[in-house]
Amino acid sequence: MDPRTGKQREQVAVEATAQEVDEAVRAADAARPALADRAVRAAFLRTAADLLDGAGATGAHLIEAADAETALGPVRLTGELARTCFQLRAFADVVDEGAFLGVVIDHPDDTATPPIPDLRRYKIPLGVVAVYAASNFPFAFSVPGGDTASALAAGCPVVVKAHPDHPATSELVASVIRRAAARHGIPEGVLGLVHGFGAGVELVRHPLVAAAGFTGSVRGGRALFDAAAARPTPIPFHGELGSLNPVVVTEAAAAERAEEIGAGLAGSMTLGVGQFCVKPGLVLAPAGPAGDTLVKALTAAVSGTGSGVLLDHRMRDDFIAGVAERAALPDVAAPVTPGAGGDHTVSPGFLTVPAARLAVAGGAHDLLLEECFGPVTVVARYASADEITAVVSRLPGNLTATVQLSSAEAAGEDGGAGEGGGRGAALLTELTGVAGRVLVNGWPTGVAVAPAQHHGGPYPATTSTSTSVGGTAIERWLRPVSYQTTPEALLPPELRDGNPLGLPRRYDGRLEN
Predict the structure, then answer these.
(1) Which of 240, 371, 409, 494 is catalytic?
(2) 15 labelled catalytic
(3) pTM of the model
(4) Which of 54, 209, 323, 441 is 20 to 30 A from 120 via CA?
(5) What is the tens place of the pLDDT at every residue in 71-102?
(6) How many beta carbons lie within 10 A of that of residue 473, not counting itself?
């Protein structure tokens, strides 16, 4: 479908039957031996990145197809494809390094209590991974995205359930990755692709599927999570379901730089027409004059932001209905009214509400603590630090949480509450309890692909404690195994004395590189 017009463009695939899902999973399972060699895996990932690279004709064709299906625009999609290729190459580096294997070797020690036998431990791939593509990132969280890249890096074949908002892009990307596989003697079945709601359900229930990764709604993710747990043999389900991404602006920060904060918030909440999973959806701002200045700056910045197209008309309808329902609540105001911007677009805006309305559970205002997908945020005006604490304590789990501090607070020189850092340190402690990534004086939109990254958080942000971005995302698709008193000739090469593969490892209690 063309989200800019609401009209059908073309048919590119059909919904997979149960038999077709079974065939895709079995083909993926049959490709497992071809991924056993780490050098082959790393080369495969790099070739996939090269073939997808946005600098070439293939990349331009992919961007054109993705823009036609998502209306995200060539500039945004070019950057996203470059990010995706960088991520594939980064996981190739992880595979080459080998630290992800977690090799630990302990030789016998009869003096220990109890005695320690010869033990050797490392991690092995789980098996076929089911990946459920996201709507808002047709590259970075879809067929070639972080779930797929990390699973392949771990040695796990993948079957992707394509998102219905970009089926053509999914088919094109899958064909590129299969070409990359073929260049290294890997069967094309190493990456399966299926379409349709029923196919997604069949996929998570298939007995050869060993784990699943999901990015999407709370409702859809929870249904699949429950299905994964209800199998005769439950499997790990790493789901990213939803996030409010709260922001706390201290009174001192607002007094120091209200205009800067208001402009930064507007840019973050409207980026990509508010369709980022880390969009700030709730902002706690002071009720006094400094907070008024912030709201004025936010009003000016959002008013100057044009309308945009959401990924599909269902999302557009949900956004319009969602903001209308929130705006109708008592004591809720709309300095800039969000809603329909035209027949196919939405206009950004924001709502304000006294924070006291959110501090007590059980009322209609609890709706304001739920994510609303699109270009809208809620500014809750607090009258005291106690109101901040009360609202934060009621928040669900989040991918991110942000605090905007003054210069003195950031330096721990404000003399406020808390030890060893004043009010800023105390707020960080509160926010750490509800989020997987905590930011100071920044904005959460933009998730760097870096070794120290954590893209996850307490439920419902994610269903596990793992990250879906960064090198450690590979850990989701591995399980440890130990060999005890096993003759050297029978051990995997990774666990033999002399370290023939040159792997980072812990050897008799010492970390070696």
Answers:
(1) 240
(2) no
(3) 0.94
(4) 209
(5) 999 999 999 999 999 999 999 999 999 999 99
(6) 29
